[in-house]
Amino acid sequence: MVDTIYAEDEIIGTKKAQEIISKFRHAKVISIKRFGEVFNPSNQNFRIQKINPALILARKQKGFVLNAPEGFGIRDQDNYYFSHMYNCLYDCSYCFLQGMYNSANYLVFVNFDDYKNEIEKIIGKDKEKEMTFFTGYDCDSLAMEPITNFLSDFIPFFRRYKNALFEIRTKSINNTVFRKHDALTNCIVAYSLMPETLAQTLDKKAPSVSARIKNIKYIANKGWRIGLRFDPLIYCNNWKAQYSELFANIFKEIKEESIHSVSLGSLRFPKSFFNKLLQYYPNSEEFSFLRSNDKGIISYDQSIENEMNEYCRLELMKYSDARKFFSCG
Amino acid sequence: MTNQNFEGMSVRWVIALKAEAEEIIKNYALERVATKPFQVYKNRDIDIWLVLSGIGQINAVAATTYLYVKSDASDNTIWMNLGIVGSRNFKVGELVQIDKITSNDFPDNHYPSPATFKNNNVERSNLITVNKPEALFENDGVYDMEGYAFFSFAKKIASYELVSVLKIISDIPGTDISKIDKIAVERLVLKKMPLIEKVLENLLSLQEILLLQQRNPNYFDEICQQRKFSFSQKVTLKKYLTQWQSRFPMRNPLSEIEKKMTTSQILKRFSDNLLR
Ligand code: SF4
User: Do the interacting molecules here have an ipTM over 0.95?
Assistant: First the structure.
């Protein structure tokens, strides 16, 4: 899979870096001073790099935990996110990472303890306060678990802090970690889902939706709490039928009690990012319904967004308690 | 000669000495088109050019700049640097593709894109660019006198993934440099031509992807010829035509344009249709 590993001089000798390097016996390891030397040069082409991404091992220097962007997160709790990794094994057409970074190389920050220290500080400020920590926005941490062991490290960590909810956003069907550890009540395994035919076109390299549902069922039966994330909602010709079928398929398999929360999200891009996407996918029908609004954001018409949100909410209410719903974005 | 030949294919070679370039010149049927300030060669039909830079970093940058301007290279052009090098950890005759470039004169290092290494079985090495011929080879890797400067400049004028440095080992500790004559160098390059071609083939496939990404949507050029669109209008037009292609693949957007329509009216017509 990975044939080149760039490792910062500062961390190349650490246990974590060596543990990761040892998993790629045939890869060439190249020492670098700072990850930016490889990750940041302009003129790089994300799509071309995606053909053969390299792995970059680095030390995160600052900004370990950030406030979740406005509109994201669960209700009015304190919402934070942290990224131990940038870029993803999968290749979803709408993925914002393509517009965010010059490079498609997988960048892993190996100093997990610095993240934990920062999280502990935040939790320590008010031990009673409920808060959520999200992971999986700049990568799919579960998909990369066999390489990073990130969750094997952070699940036991969050077990100590019951007021802190830990959300793992994913499309992966890797369930080893959920078999290895007892279910954690303050952890949500949040699955991104869309109708199967749309996912076949858009969620490239990601497991099929039916495989995801099967895996959700397995994990839920092990006692893990599940988040259902219909984010982004994708508009297409027969979207109503497709979403209805998706919801029915999910709740045919998964008991409502296992569901922690359900969220709906809209497809939105900053204009500059969207122009990049159009360049990458000039023939994508799914993007052809998007419009620019006066704030420089590309999204569906408000009427389409509202209709989709409303319809999906009502459909979902057939199966799940509306108090579990929240919208993101 | 490469089998690939597509619209937009474009390659530039920067090579220090004639002996190192001879086989490339023959293989790609290049003809001399300039002698001063640098000797420049090109293929009559395909957009492949070569410059003889002479030895050293200043020459490498000057020759690359010269070729860039003279050959009207675009940012989708492939740039290759090929040359002979010394090393303590490779055998004479081996071809290496460079994955890290350092220089004692500059703090920044360069890392050619991993995309350029795919699909070939070429050995990889770091390159240390020095200002005087090296005999001691204190570190592993290969030593040359141009690579750092070449890469620093080429990555600014071309896509990062289309710049590559290839080196063939000609001397190791103890080699009698006086025995490395023109014929010996030509032979070294000739032996490695199949691998050099393989590297180029991979770069050409990356170039093709880039070109496809950047192609204007259908009818864009025709419509721009009919009316004078401003820059920002062209951006909008491109977007609408891209959307049009996927929404109405059977409808020709030219038929939407009426004789007296202004550029704004044309854009509005497209937008209205796409909104339906
Ligand atoms: S799974 Fe998420 S992070 Fe990965 S490519 Fe898809 S949208 Fe991007």
Answer: no
Q: Per the domain annotation, does B4 fall within a domain? A: no
**Tens of pLDDT, residues A158-217:** 999 999 999 999 999 999 999 999 999 999 999 999 999 999 988 999 999 999 999 999
The residue whose CB lies within 8 Å of the most ligand 1 atoms, and thus the one to mutate among A87, A88, A170, is A88
B101-119 tens-digit pLDDT: 999 899 999 999 999 987 6
Nearest Cβ partner for B217 among A6, A282, A287: A282
Q: Does domain A61-328 have CATH number 3.40.50.970?
A: no
Q: How many residues does chain A have?
A: 329
Residue from B110, B113, B159 to probe the interface with A (highest A Cβ count within 10 Å): B113
**Two tokens, residue B270:** 């497209």
Domains contained in chain B, number: 2
Would you say residue A288 has pLDDT above 80?
no
Q: Which residues contact A224 (CB under 8 A, 6 or more apart)?
A: A178, A183, A184, A187, A189, A258
Domain-embedded: residue B3: no
Chain B residues within an 8 Å CB radius of A275: 235, 239
**Of A277, A285, A203, which is closest to residue A246 (Cα–Cα)?**
A203
Nearest to A57 by CA among A97, A10, A96: A10
Cis preceding-peptide flag for B37 (omega within 30 of 0): yes
**Are residue B110 and residue B153 in the same domain, yes or no?**
yes
Better pLDDT: B133 or B20: B20
Tell me phi and psi for residue A307, to 5 degrees.
-65, -40
Query: What tokens does B12 get?
Result: 């530039």
